[in-house]
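Model: Ready when you are.
Researcher: Fold this.
Model:
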Amino acid sequence: MKILVLRFSSIGDIVLTTPVVRCLKLQVPGAQVHFATKPGFRSFLEPNPYIDKVHCLTGSLRELVAELKAEQFDFVVDLHHNLRTALLKAQLGVKSASFDKLNWRKWLLVRFKVNTLPRVHIVDRYLEAAAPLGVKNDGQGLDYFIPAADEVNLSAALPPIFQRGYVAFAIGAQHATKRLPVERIIELCGLLRQPVVLLGGPEDESTGHIIELAFDSQAASSPPAPARIPDSPYYFPPLPASPGPATVIYNACGKFNLNQSASLVRQARFVVSHDTGLMHIAAAFRKEIFSVWGNTVPEFGMYPYRTEFRILEVPGLPCRPCSKIGYEKCPQGHFRCMRDISFTLDLPPARDGR
């Protein structure tokens, strides 16, 4: 049987589809599993041994439809369920099933703070779309396969103090209301009191530099050196470092590609992350996660899957959630969902968790 899985974005959502891909390949007799997505995710999907072929939306939808029609699929598992995938399925004209996005239930929670969402992780809702093919959850969690060429050699890539073990902190997120303010990241890093590798894309490099500079200044026992402050309402002056063992920062933002960042996550003692793709990659490696939530909420069903985790959030805030995705600034202007989080941490032992 030839099966097409549809999910065009984003990296976190695609990582969350990996149990579906694996179960289709292993549980459907003779399954050939293809995956259609955007070109930016090819490098993550192609190393997956449960995917036989990756198709990318590089031009028009018409061109992709022509490519997919030539494959003569028997069944389509739609894990995106939007207008684009509806048009694609209609033109392919084969049997299909889609996962329920529960948008109206999310709308009730965002608009009226009425929670009717089932207490079911999105992975299990994804798997329901494959149920017509007899697929069941195998309980093995998420997958992420790093090509050998992208495995990071810590002795070559990181300063010596980080080679003995570190915490990975994914400081980025697509929307500002899903990211801690810079001074709160500095505060949280100070509480970790051990080497911390900051992870993110090129867009996070300047924020990482400010964080790194704050700890460099503290280590030198001098006032914080002047830094270029981002033009953002979410920047505030750095807070003093906490007493005790020193936190040391390495700013890896923008220095590594996605697979290499995943390798750094895999080799970390544990992971601190906003509600973003690297959080789900950490779950794929069964890392312990401190998961930071701002304007979105774990009740949407996208908390870390099948790994140990702890939620850092402001429970009971009446304006939260204000969106199922996020904003570039707080609609209320106070940003209490991130400003008021209590960093009460029960840290794992400082051992090398690789």
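Researcher: Now this one.
Model:
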Amino acid sequence: MVMELMSFQKLFQMTKVINSQFELSEILQVFVDAIAGEITQADLVGFFLKQPDGTFKGDKGNKLPVDITELLIDPKEDEFVRDILRNQSSDYISDTSVDLRLDQSKRQLLKIKSILGIPVIVDNEVFGLVFVHDFGKPMNITPEQMEVTEAFVNMASVAIRNIRMFEQRQLLMEKQQLLLDATKALSESLSVKDVLNTFFHYMRKASGSKDIGIHLYNEKEHTIEPYQLSSENVTMDEWKVKHREVKLTIENDRLLYEVITEKKSAAIEDVYADPRPNHKAFVSFDIKSIMVFPLVAKGSVYGVVAIPSIGKQRKYEASLLEFCQSISDATATALSNAQHTETLDHSVHERSIELQQANFKLEGLVRELEHLNELKSDFIATLSHELRTPITAVKGSVDILGKGILGDLNESQKDLLDIAAKSIDRLLDQVNELLDFAKMENGKFELMYTEADFNEIVKESVHIVQSLINKKKLVLVVETESEIDSVVRVDKQRILQILLNLLSNAIKFTPPLGVITIKTKFEDNLLTVEVHDNGIGIPLEKQKNIFTKFYQANNQINGTGLGLAISKQLIELHGGRIWFDSSEGQGSVFKFTLPTGKE
């Protein structure tokens, strides 16, 4: 029995250790050692991290006769690995001399007689692979040990996802703080020299590049002239001489033409594979990759910022491009104002008013960024400290109980565990609400459309919240049109998320013995859904902010303040709309429409 090998308490303690770590490397090492020493008693346990090219590179191991970091697994050469990736589930070869799917070179190198392979799934994608085997002998591993190992891998997957989310939030905070500092510093830079020094300082941090050039655009001549440079590879004089030799114009450089005329940034990873840029200029400076940003002030482009990669190619992420553009945008106004102040012969009074107005705008932006930064910091702190560890531990415990490892369960117990598991999964999904909202705002969120019976979605949502309904002794009434075809083409999980948000709010704000009603209506290829409650209602002065992110109408009720904001965006992404009617003390009715997706 598994309990003879390792107690449930020990498994729980290992889970707490994993979730107390804040470095991915430490988590993976604890993870590997625990599987080897506490669960399987296998000779060798190795974790292989997925690479950008689809291969898997050795990362962590308990003990191996070779350096695991030198091992590389190519799914093209390993059928066993391909099966694991295709099914996204564990696989076991009891005898490698009979089952030949394993890469034979790896089998011989590590003397593998039998092997267990488990995928580490993070955010529905394979993050890495775990392999468990003995050295030179068949494994003596039981089905129970396999199940516990899989459960432990699932717990580690959640911990890895939380660490990645934490790192992403940290990076976002660092970027916002950098933008905040840059904006503030630029607002205090009144001379051209100060603006340029401030710009180069913060753009080097934002872009990770030491080569940054500012060019001014001569609208009359259509030429691009070198203005100011920050570089360790070329001097200012050399830079200007080479520019004079090339004589860049928007006619001989299509890339600059698009950036200037369309007022949008561009990034090219291989400049010679792209026909738009002036290749002669790039050969002269040995440029392999480049980012270009327009400097826009008062609606016009008066220059561009070029950030090349000298001597080697570089890949650019969209987030990097957007961040550097933000620095350029803040600089454009400050630089334009400074140039205007130093070159135009206006009165001191007129110049003072213009600079004061610019500073007021920048100071307003600083205050707004500071406020947003405080909200974000508070939210992340609450999320990471109050939710991550207990939810992960509960999920692991429920998974183990559901597998029957601690004993057989009767049907009622299984039903309760099923409800608990679904509720825990929903709670874990809420940890991703902020990331979902950010993706929506950046236009990177994609729906996964499938055909689904909407009545069944309603039933599933009711099933999930039934325990909450029973606990408050509420009455839940469902009025659906059973005689009508209720199949719709939607993202089922996101529609379920919307219903659960609306039902959860109704339950929170409805007193005991109250009534909640769900109504659906199909008409002209349009589905209308209504969620009624006779709860406390929403005060009139707060109704305008109901769909605003992080806003809570009742601060006495715990929550992130994101549920309705995300629901609104999800409904609008589906092509529908959401609204509500509410009177204080008389309850609320939330309504939304969705296209059915039928011709």
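Researcher: Key takeaway?
Model: The two ends are 57 Å apart (CA to CA).
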